[in-house]
Structures are given as structure tokens and as C-alpha cells.
Amino acid sequence: MSEKTIVHLLRHGEVHNPEGILYGRLPGYRLSENGVLMAQAVAKWFADRDVTALFSSPLERALETAAPMSEVFGLEVAVEERLIEAGNHFEGLTFGAGQGSLKHPRHWPFLINPIRPSWGEPYRKIAMRMRGAVIAAKNAARGHEAVCVSHQLPIWTLRRYAERRRMWHHPKRRQCELASVTSLAFEGDRLVEVSYHEPAAGLVKRPTVPGA
């Protein structure tokens, strides 16, 4: 029987962002007090699992989410650049019709192709870099479990790729809540199961911001 390895993709916790900025890859966006509680809740949820490798996006909110996990398992957090948030033209702006950046005609050309998408990093590029990060995590934790802390869009894009679904989608329909866990189970190198959990569901406030 082939060895079983599980790679868990953990979305970071809630971020302190009172201005409602689409912060993307901008530095300085850290977890809120509630986000810290989310990270602690997730680490507790993982405590009895066989985690032997821990990776994180280089962004502050992801590293802070990984920190309690590092303490629980006594693991160093390996920074994995391929887990970073997706690039986005609207980074640093508020987004939406009416009072957001959509009211400015200069932004309209970036909305013409939602399938690519035209406003940011192509879905296929996101999926391929995330796939590479997952393969590296799987190889590092063979026969055990690995945790990769990343962001909503990269995790959801990879899941759709893994499930052989089209990668373009409506942002409000993503199943990837704050501090949620999307788990990929492998037998040898073959993906055999995708599952989803929300260990910090009781701490999630509504509404949340898609793509954050």
C-alpha cells in the first residue's frame, strides 16, 4: 500500500483593515486581535495531528497565523514564496461600484476578461505555483502531514484545479473562509481526496471580504 501524506492549505486569520483596502501583497497588514485568536484556535485543532513540516507565505498575516502552529509542533516556519497572495491591479484601493475604484473609467479596461482574469495574476499561473508549493510540502512530509499557510484566492484556485473544475469563478462563491483548512490527501504521489474544515468558524464575523 502506498504511503499516505496530507498537505493542509490553511488560510490566514482575520486582518486589521479598518479602511477596507484590498491589501493584496502590500506589507504591514497584520492579524487583528480576533485573527490572533483564530490562529490559536487552528493550532489547537491541529495539535493531535502528525504535522512534520510547516510552510508559509512571506506576508505578515500568514506568518502570524503560522506562529502558534510552530509553537505547538516545535517546527520552524519555512517561507515559501509560491504561497503568496495573487497579484491584483486594485491592490491598495477600495473595490466596488459607487464609492469604490470601479467608478473611475481608468480601471474599466482591467475588468474586460474575468476568465483570465484581466485585473491580476492569471488563474493558471496561480494554480501552477501553488501546485509546486504543494508538491514540495508533500515531499518534505512524506508519510506524515504538512501545513501551508496561504491566502483565499490561491487556495481556492488550486482546489478548483485539483478537482478539474474551471478556474474562473465568482469570488463570493469561494469555499475558503478565514482560518479555514483545505486538505489534500495523497497516496504516494496520487491525489485521492480533498476535504474542507473551518476550525475557527465561531470567530468569523459577517460579512467577510472575499479575496482578502
From TrEMBL:
InterPro entries hit by this protein: His_Pase_superF_clade-1, His_PPase_superfam, PGM_Phosphatase
Any one of the GO CC terms: cytoplasm
Lineage: Bacteria, Bacillati, Actinomycetota, Actinomycetes, Streptosporangiales
Name by which UniProt lists this protein: Broad specificity phosphatase PhoE
A molecular function (GO) term: phosphatase activity
Gene3D superfamilies, A to Z: Phosphoglycerate mutase-like
Entry coiled-coil feature ranges: none
A Pfam family this chain is assigned to: His_Phos_1
